[in-house]
Design brief:
82 residues; mainly alpha; 2 helices; 0% strand; elongated
Length: 82
């Protein structure tokens, strides 16, 4: 079946879901943009805080393990010399 461009546009306009268009003022657009930027900034700050907390936690674990290994090495050295 051969359909024309006109038939396709006509068919699509009647059977596709309607789209809603909102018209807002420039000041409302700026307010929305400002809120979006503030939300993004808040999310970045929260992500940084979580990352820093995780980093400090991992450093603590590494330091503890390093100390344990040093103590084990100290305990092994005298046994090796005898």
């Amino acid at each position: 079946m051969n359909t024309s461009l006109f038939d396709t546009v006509l068919f699509d306009s009647y059977f596709s879901p309607m789209r809603t268009v909102y018209v807002i003022s420039d000041s409302q657009l700026e307010e929305i943009k400002s809120k979006q930027r503030q939300e993004e900034l808040d999310n970045l700050k929260a992500a940084r805080k979580r990352l820093e907390e995780n980093y400090q936690s991992r450093i603590k674990i590494i330091d503890e393990r390093e100390h344990e290994l040093q103590e084990e090495l100290k305990a092994l050295v005298p046994a090796k010399q005898t």
